[in-house]
Amino acid sequence: MSQMLIPNTVTEACQMLSSGNRVACAGATNLYVDREKGKYLDRDIVSLHRLKELSGIREEKDGWHIGSLTTFDLIEDVFRGQGSMDALAEAASLVGGPQIRNRGTIGGNILSASPAADTVPVLMALDAVLVLVSETGQRMVSINGFMKGPGRTAIHQGEILTEIVIPFKTGAARFRKVGKRNALAISIINVAVYMEKEAGRITALTIAIGSAGPTALRAFHTEELLRTWKRPDSEEKWQSLHEEIAIALSEDISPIDDIRATGSYRKTVADNLVLQLVRELWEACEK
């Protein structure tokens, strides 16, 4: 029978997680569902709820620092209307319902490694860095490549995700989710795009997509395509760009059929969303 362990410090938490069959828990919004399905029943739970230093948002010289135990509600409150960070606020506002957003944490959203996690594509598009702490020290890793598959990440035994660092950005970002409903539903597809532009050309661009592969992923071929384009000046050119995006995305994503949607539907939605967000950002960057 599993037991609950409650550390008072990050060091204690790392010690507890470094041995035995144990799993860390923050808001527990995923844990209860997983245990109902028979997962983690043989593992001790290390609850992080006393580690208040892991909650909150602060602005430092190298960017925004978001504690891993920060709730979705707080993220939405702090970043709504804050330039490119507004995309993260939008994603946070669409996670579950009010109760989930009040208790669920951004660290849990990352470490659950769901391909459909709503905040992860935004963090990828904004070049977020994860701070991982263990008994032996600290390491910083890019969120891009951190997810290894459904439910699997590159975190080591005995490590805790303490915070997420997002460098300051001068461009604009957008997030869009398509699901059965806006909230209280797992994403069929979600897309985040970040753009900087100068003299009619894109100078910086990142595109990240969720629910289109075994993990959320960057659309590198599509990014490269768009960097070669000037802003289309007619609907015919926009249509031509749409067709090229569809071809490039075929190289980037591999959506599957499941109970929520077919792979071909996901691909069509992804094509449309990328074009829509790129067009919005091109226009936003010109204002």
Automatic annotation (TrEMBL):
Q: Which Pfam families match?
A: CO_deh_flav_C (PF03450), FAD_binding_5 (PF00941)
Q: Identify the residues that the record assigns to the FAD-binding PCMH-type domain, covering every copy.
A: 1-171
**What protein is this chain from?**
FAD binding domain-containing protein
* Family annotation (InterPro entries): CO_DH_flav_C, CO_DH_flav_C_dom_sf, Diverse_Substr_Oxidored, FAD-bd_PCMH, FAD-bd_PCMH-like_sf, FAD-bd_PCMH_sub2, Mopterin_DH_FAD-bd
* Originating organism: Coprococcus intestinihominis
What SUPFAM superfamilies is this protein classified in?
CO dehydrogenase flavoprotein C-terminal domain-like (SSF55447), FAD-binding/transporter-associated domain-like (SSF56176)
Q: Which Gene3D superfamilies match?
A: 3.30.465.10, CO dehydrogenase flavoprotein, C-terminal domain
Transmembrane regions: none
Recite the UniProt keywords alphabetically.
Flavoprotein, Oxidoreductase
